Amino acid sequence: MDCPWYNRRQRDRVNKPRPQASSQTHDPVDDRDLVESARRGDRDAFRTLFERYHRRAYALAFGVLRHQEDALDVVQDAFIKAHKYLDKFEGNSSFYTWLYRIIMNLAIDHLRKHRRVKPVELDETRVDAQADETFLPKLLGGNPGRALADKEIRKRIDEALDELSENHRAVLVMRELEGLSYEEMAQTMGCSKGTIMSRLFHARRNMQKRLLDLIDHPSPELIKELGLDDPGDDDDAQSRS
Amino acid sequence: MTKYHDIELMQHTDGELAGSAKRDLDQRLAADREASTKRDGMREMTELVRGHLELSADAVPDARFFQMWDRIDAAIGQEQAAAEPERASWLRRLVHWFDRHRSHLLTGALSAGAVATLALVLRGGAGDDGGASAGGALKVQPVNLRTPPQIESLETPGGAGTVLNIEDEDGHATVIWVTPEDTVEGI
């Protein structure tokens, strides 16, 4: 197209700096200032917000949905929706808190629309039902960071997350990744605090069971990686048995 | 020390207990090795899940997020472009309405102007009446009473004149009675 305006626009588009996808460090510009600028139509300000939170947003969506493409779609829709309704953001909470609520709502909607098998869950309204079940002591020698370097462990965590019901997984991810309180989770999921407690309890217990199976039959690489043959861990092994 | 359930231990680990319930479990955790290792097990699970999900997010290539931003940017652009015609259509509708009612509006404006001018002129005239309307309050002017003419002397050559002043409820009347001198009484 031989049009100077069009050519200039295309050149600007190509030369525009790309988002720093791997950088999560915040520059001095406050989120609220960026939100204000974005409200006035400054798309660069909104891009900065995207750069700050896209990976964290993805981790949340992926934790709930367990599917990369679905999680990417949800994050994309969440940012578009956030921009559309920026005027409704009152600033009582942080921008990310507002964004994660949008992500969670979209993720839960997505699960409802694309549910293939209706999950079977325990009676979640009765917290007392879990009174006889117990948590396990620490399994990995107190060094989760080292454990995560092991592919087998990560694969097992993936499988354990996949096996959780959608509601249990959503609560577990909100708590472990975002550190939400029971009350905040209850509001987000539209249920009682007791239900949230019950879901979280089951989710954690099932995750532990799944990992215990791996620890009880560890591969030689895992024993070496985690130092499971270390006599210092005997106390934990005894308390497990 | 009361027996605890693991669900309470979980609440304590998550910072959801307060008051005496929290104090009881604090004491329990200090003295009970089983309870403290369970609490450590929960913290370990938190680290594992959080670390695993963050690593999963880091594994997504940057290019996927570049593409995502391009799509978000395009969607925002479309949204803003869609909002423009909406604003423009409001302006167009306003201009169209003005065109349709232009003659009525002009007539109305001219009439209003004429009425306003007339009111101003009349108001200006009222200023000369001693400020009767200026202050808004009516100022009552005294009425000049008509007094009857006073006839002090009457000249009647060749006769005699008499002046009679009569006053009653209808007002005041003056009667002048003239009698010629050559009048013969009794005729």
Give an overview in words.
- The complex is a heterodimer of chains A (241) and B (187).
- Chain A contains 12 helices and no strands.
- Chain A has 241 residues and is mostly helical.
- The radius of gyration of chain A is 22 Å and the shape is elongated.
- The N terminus and C terminus of chain A are likely disordered.
- Chain B has a domain of 53 residues.
- In chain B, 59% of the residues lie in helices and 11% in strands.
- With 187 residues, chain B is mainly alpha-helical.
- Chain B has a two-stranded antiparallel sheet with strand order 1-2.
- The interface between A and B is large, with 63 and 46 residues.
Main pleated sheet of chain B: 2 strands, antiparallel
- Radius of gyration of chain B (CA) equals 56 Å
CATH homologous superfamily name of the largest domain in chain A?
A: Winged helix-like DNA-binding domain superfamily/Winged helix DNA-binding domain
- Compute the number of strand runs of chain B: 2
Main beta-sheet strand count, sense and barrel state of chain A: none
Of all protein chain pairs, which has the greatest interface, and how many residues does each chain bring to it? A-B, 63 and 46 residues
The total tally of domains of chain A equals 2
Helix content of chain B: 55-70%
Strand order of the largest sheet of chain B: 1-2
| Mean pLDDT metric of chain A | 77
Report the order of strands and helices of chain A.
HHHHHHHHHHHH
Structural class per helix/strand content of chain A? mainly alpha
What are the SSEs and their pairings?
The complex is a heterodimer of chains A (241) and B (187).
Chain A: H1 4-15, H2 31-39, H3 43-65, H4 68-84, H5 95-113, H6 144-147, H7 151-163, H8 166-178, H9 182-189, H10 193-216, H11 220-226, H12 234-240
Chain B: H1 6-13, H2 19-31, H3 33-58, H4 62-100, H5 102-126, E1 159-168, E2 171-180
Antiparallel strand pairs in B: 1-2
